[in-house]
Specification:
The complex is a heterodimer. Helix content of chain A is about 50%, strand content about 0%. Chain A is mainly alpha-helical. The radius of gyration of chain B is 22 Å and the shape is globular. Classes of the chains: A mainly alpha, B mainly alpha.
C-alpha cells in the first residue's frame, strides 16, 4: 500500500489533501457561516461619507472631473453620495491590491506585543466579513505601519501629500512615491488618487473607537529617571 | 520485504537497458528550452528583487515611474520565482527524469510542447497583468483572476502527460515517483483551492485560512516533492550507490504527505482564526520537522564514506548544500511557529529571511545543481569553465547565507522595537544597515547567476560537440 501507485494516489494525493482542506479550511468557513457578508454598498458609513465629502470640498475640480457633480433634491443627493462613495471605495480597494500596498502594510491587530496600545482594538472576525476581503487583506509584512485603524487618523490633505511624496511628511520613509495618483501636484489628485484615499480613510471607520490615536505616554522613561535622580540626590 | 529491497536500489542506468533509444525517450530540446527559460525568469526576478531592495535603502533609480513601481515588482519577484523559475526548472528536470526512470516516454511529445508554450503564456500574462496593476490579493497567487483557469488547465494537462509513463510501470515504484505522482495531484488541487475558494466562495477570516493553506501547500506540496523527488533520483545515480535506508524514505514521504498539508493556518497565528485550529497547525508543523530530520539523516547516511564527493563533484555539492539549508530552514520553522516566537517575529524581516532561505537556499540551489549536472549531458559538451562553475556556487551560497542571517537577525530587532512601543521610525532606522547588507548579498547571488549564464553561453558556443559518453567524462560532474 505504501509503495503502490493506488496508495500514493488515493491516500497521500487525495485523502490527506482532503483531510487538511476539511480541517484547515472547511471548519473555519462553517464556524463563520453565520456572520453575514457585507457588500461594498453596506460598508459605506457616516465616517467614510464625511471623509469622501471632504475630498469633494478640498479638491472640487479633481472630484468633479472624476465623479461629476451631485444631483439636486435631498433624497437623490443622499443616494448619489452613497453610491459614489461605494464606487470610490471599490476602486480604492482594487488599487490597494494592484499596487501591492498589502505586501508592506498589514491589516490586523494582534492581541500580543503591545499592539493594542499602538494600533487600537484587537482584530475580530466580523470586521473581515465583507466583499473587500475577498481574499482577506491580513497582510504579511509590516515595512510600514498597520493600516486597519488608519481611517480618520490623518486628514485627506495629509494622505494626498504623503502618496505624492512620502518623504515630505515622514523623513526616513522607504515608501515609494505614487505620482500617477495625481495630475502633477499633490493638490490635484486624479480618480485613482481620490479612490485610494477613500479606501484608506475607510479602514477602521466601523470601529467605536474611531478615530484611533496611538496611546503614547509622553516619554515615561526620562520622567522615571528624574524621579530616581531626585530620590538619589536626597540625603 | 523483497519489494522494499528491490525498490531501494538506485534507478538502473537507463542508457543500457532502455527499450527506446535515449533521444526518443527524452525530448532533449525541450529540457534545454525549459532550463534556458527558467534562467531567464530567474534573471528578471532577481532584478525585481534588487529593485525592491534598493527602494528600501532609498536608492531606487526608477523612482516615480508607474511601470517600475516597487510594489508591483515585488509581486513580479515572487511570481516569477514560483511560476517562471521554479516551475520551468522542475518541468525541465521532470522531462529528463520521468522517462528515464520509467523507461516510458511521456504520453505525447506534442502535448509537452503545447504545455510549454501555454505555461510561458501564463507566466508572461501574469507578469504583464501585475505590472499593469491587475493583481489578485492573494499572496503567491497574485496571478490576475482571468489567468487562473488557464493555469489550472495547464496543470491538468501536465498530469495527463506525465501520469501514463508512471502508470505503465509494473510493481512498486521508486521513491522519486512517489513524490512526483502525489505532486501532480496536489499541485492541481492546491492551485484550484487557493485561487478560487477565497476569491469566490469564502470571505474574511475563513479566506485567510484558505490563503494560508495555499501559500503553505504551494511550497510543501508543489515545490518540496519536486525537490526531494529530484534528490532521490540524482544523488544515488551520481554517487553510484543506493539510498541508505528504504524505511526512512518511507517515513519521509508519508510523514510529509500527512503533516505538511495540515499546517496552513500557521501563517496567520494570533488572527481571529479559532485558537484550536492554530494549535493544530503548530503541532503538525513541529511534527513535520521530525520527519524532515529523518529525510536529511537518510541522505547523509547515503553519502557516508563518500564525503570527498562534496569537494570533487559539483552537483553533489549543490545538492548537499541545499539539504543543509533545508534542515536549517525547518529547524528555524519549528521555533518560529511557536506562539512565543510569533509575538516578536511576525510581520518582520525574519520571515523574509526564512522565505529566501527556503526558496533560494534550498530549491534554487537544487535546481542549479541539477542544471550543472545536466547541461553537459544536454549539450554533449563539458563545461567551458570549471572556475565559473565554482564562482557560481560560492557567490550564490555565501550570498544566501549572509542574506538569511542578516534578515533573520534584523527581524528580531524590528520585533523588539515594535513591542517596546518605540516610535515607528525607529524600526526603520535600525533596519537601514541590515537592508544595505541585504542588497550586497543579493548582488552576490545575482553575480553567481551571471557567471552561470555566461558559462552556459560559452559552453554552448565555444566548446566543440563531443560524442555522448565523452562529454560527461571530463566535466566536474563525475566524481
Amino acid at each position: 500500500m505504501f509503495e503502490s501507485k493506488a496508495g500514493i494516489l488515493w491516500i497521500a494525493g487525495i485523502g490527506f489533501f482532503a483531510l487538511a482542506f476539511v480541517s484547515n479550511a472547511v471548519v473555519p468557513a462553517l464556524m463563520y457561516d453565520d456572520l453575514p457578508e457585507q457588500t461594498v454598498e453596506e460598508l459605506v458609513n457616516a465616517n467614510l461619507r464625511f471623509q469622501f465629502e471632504d475630498l469633494a470640498r478640498r479638491y472640487p475640480d479633481s472630484f468633479n472631473s472624476a465623479y461629476g457633480e451631485p444631483p439636486g433634491g435631498t433624497a437623490e443627493d443622499d443616494a448619489w453620495w452613497n453610491e459614489t462613495t461605494a464606487t470610490a471605495l471599490r476602486e480604492g480597494h482594487k488599487i490597494y491590491v494592484g499596487e501591492g500596498c498589502w505586501h508592506c502594510h498589514s491589516q490586523f491587530v494582534r492581541p500580543v506585543s503591545n499592539e493594542e496600545q499602538r494600533w487600537g482594538p484587537v482584530a475580530e472576525s466580523w470586521e473581515y466579513q465583507n466583499e473587500l476581503n475577498r481574499p482577506v487583506m491580513f497582510g504579511t509584512r509590516r515595512v510600514g505601519p498597520d493600516l486597519s485603524r488608519e481611517g480618520g487618523r490623518r486628514s485627506n490633505d495629509w494622505h494626498a501629500v504623503h502618496f505624492f511624496r512620502p518623504k515630505t511628511l515622514s523623513q526616513d520613509s522607504p515608501m515609494p512615491e505614487y505620482p500617477w495618483f495625481f495630475e502633477g501636484s499633490p493638490d490635484q489628485p486624479n480618480r485613482r488618487g481620490l479612490a485610494i484615499i477613500t479606501y484608506v480613510q475607510w479602514l477602521g471607520s466601523w470601529q467605536e473607537s474611531y478615530p484611533w490615536y496611538e496611546q503614547y505616554e509622553p516619554s515615561f522613561a526620562p520622567a522615571q529617571k528624574s524621579e530616581v535622580d531626585r530620590q538619589e540626590s536626597q540625603p | 520485504m523483497s519489494e522494499a529491497i528491490v525498490s531501494s536500489e538506485p534507478p538502473a542506468p537507463p542508457a543500457q537497458t532502455a527499450i527506446l533509444p535515449l533521444h526518443e525517450l527524452v525530448d532533449l530540446k525541450l529540457v534545454k528550452l525549459y532550463f534556458v527559460t527558467a534562467l531567464t525568469f530567474l534573471l528578471i526576478s532577481m532584478l525585481a528583487g534588487i529593485l525592491m531592495a534598493l527602494q528600501l535603502i532609498d536608492h531606487n533609480p526608477m523612482r516615480g515611474i508607474e511601470l517600475f513601481s516597487p510594489g508591483r515588482w515585488r509581486m513580479l519577484h515572487t511570481n516569477a520565482i514560483a511560476y517562471g523559475f521554479l516551475a520551468n526548472g522542475f518541468l525541465g528536470a521532470l522531462h529528463w527524469i520521468v522517462p528515464r526512470l520509467t523507461l516510458n516516454p511521456v504520453l505525447d511529445k506534442r502535448l509537452s510542447w503545447v504545455i510549454y508554450i501555454a505555461w510561458q503564456g501564463v507566466v508572461l500574462a501574469t507578469a504583464i497583468g501585475l505590472l499593469l496593476g491587475e493583481a489578485q490579493g492573494l499572496e503567491w497567487g497574485e496571478t490576475p483572476v482571468w489567468i487562473d483557469p488557464i493555469a489550472q488547465l495547464g496543470l491538468l494537462l501536465l498530469a495527463v502527460n506525465f501520469m501514463p509513463p508512471i502508470a505503465r510501470m509494473k510493481g512498486p515504484i521508486y521513491v522519486t515517483l512517489w513524490y512526483f505522482m502525489a505532486m501532480f495531484v496536489w499541485t492541481f488541487l492546491t492551485y484550484a483551492m487557493g485561487n478560487f475558494v477565497p476569491e469566490y466562495f469564502v470571505t474574511g477570516t475563513s479566506a485567510g485560512a484558505v490563503g494560508g493553506l495555499f501559500i503553505h501547500d504551494l511550497v510543501g506540496l508543489f515545490v518540496t516533492p519536486l525537490g526531494w523527488g529530484m534528490m532521490y533520483y540524482f544523488v544515488p545515480i551520481i554517487l553510484k550507490k543506493p539510498i541508505w535506508s528504504h524505511g526512512l524514505s518511507l517515513v519521509g514521504f508519508w510523514g510529509l504527505a500527512f503533516f505538511y498539508p495540515l499546517q496552513g493556518i500557521h501563517h496567520f497565528l494570533y488572527t481571529p482564526i479559532p485558537m484550536f485550529l492554530q494549535y493544530g497547525a503548530i503541532v503538525s508543523t513541529i511534527a513535520v520537522e521530525l520527519v524532515v530530520t529523518t529525510v536529511v539523516v537518510n541522505f547523509f547516511g547515503t553519502i557516508w564514506g563518500d564525503g570527498q564527493a562534496v569537494k570533487t563533484n559539483l552537483p553533489i555539492r549543490w545538492f548537499y548544500t541545499g539539504m543543509i539549508f533545508y534542515f536549517l530552514t525547518c529547524l528555524q520553522c519549528s521555533f518560529q511557529v511557536t506562539l512565543t516566537f510569533q509575538k516578536i517575529i511576525h510581520f518582520t524581516d525574519w520571515v523574509v529571511g526564512h522565505a529566501h532561505m527556503v526558496m533560494f537556499g534550498v530549491f534554487t540551489v537544487w535546481i542549479m545543481g541539477a542544471m550543472t549536472y545536466l547541461f553537459p549531458r544536454l549539450l554533449n559538451r563539458p563545461w567551458y569553465s570549471l572556475k565559473a562553475c565554482e564562482w557560481h556556487y560560492w557567490l550564490s551560497t555565501v550570498g544566501i547565507a549572509v542574506m538569511a542571517a542578516d534578515l533573520i537577525l534584523l527581524g528580531l530587532f524590528q520585533g523588539w522595537s515594535w513591542a517596546a512601543l518605540e516610535p515607528w521610525d525607529a524600526s526603520v532606522e535600525i533596519s537601514h544597515p541590515f537592508w544595505v547588507i541585504r542588497v550586497i548579498a543579493g548582488l552576490s547571488m545575482f553575480g553567481g547567476l551571471l557567471a552561470f549564464i555566461w558559462n552556459i553561453y560559452k559552453t554552448w558556443t565555444c566548446v566543440p560537440e563531443q560524442p555522448e559518453a565523452a562529454a560527461a567524462g571530463p566535466s566536474p560532474t563525475t566524481a
